[in-house]
Design a protein that fits this description.
Length: 175
């Protein structure tokens, strides 16, 4: 990835299923270029409760006003402005089995205290997340693809972190 000493002014929207690597790549780009990174789950969840839609939407509006940002998350229905305002939309689509492995690994790591998470992890949540993950490719990805079709000129679809970094380099060089 291109090295850069000063912050790059860019707005990046990263979307993918649970366990797709959104948070990892968002943090890497954020650290590399000094761009603030925001997880949509943090706009939805506090560790002990869910924020109201009004609180959530207000937090999103504040982020969107910033000059530069990375917004990552699986949410798409209530964050249409993030697609509109983004300079680059990254859709991450790794293999379902890789996502399942990452979901289970994260669950174990949060349960034993190695990793923190936005909300309390439970076996029920794990099962629901695995079910939702199975439906993502057939149900959610096509919806997201359709919702972002008018932004296809700034949308890339990648399979992994390496593809993302390669596309990011190309995007920055061509700016």
């Amino acid at each position: 990835m291109t090295d850069c000493k000063e912050m790059i002014v860019i707005k990046i929207r990263i979307i993918g299923s649970c366990g797709s690597g959104k948070s990892t790549i968002a943090r890497e780009i954020s650290n590399k270029f000094g761009i603030p990174c925001f997880e949509l789950d943090n706009l939805v969840w506090n560790t002990d409760h869910r924020y109201s839609d009004e609180e959530r939407d207000s937090k999103l509006a504040e982020i969107l006003k910033q000059e530069t940002w990375i917004i990552e998350g699986v949410h798409y229905k209530w964050v249409l402005e993030s697609f509109r305002d983004a300079d680059l939309i990254i859709m991450i689509t790794p293999n379902t089995w890789i996502r399942d492995y990452r979901i289970i690994r994260r669950f174990i790591r949060t349960r034993i205290g190695i990793e923190s998470w936005n909300y309390k992890q439970s076996v029920h949540n794990l099962i629901e997340m695995m079910k939702w993950n199975k439906k993502y490719d057939q149900e959610h990805f096509p919806c997201i693809f359709d919702l972002t079709e008018c932004y296809s000129h700034k949308r890339i679809i990648v399979r992994n972190q390496e593809d993302t970094l390669t596309h990011m380099d190309r995007f920055l060089i061509n700016r």
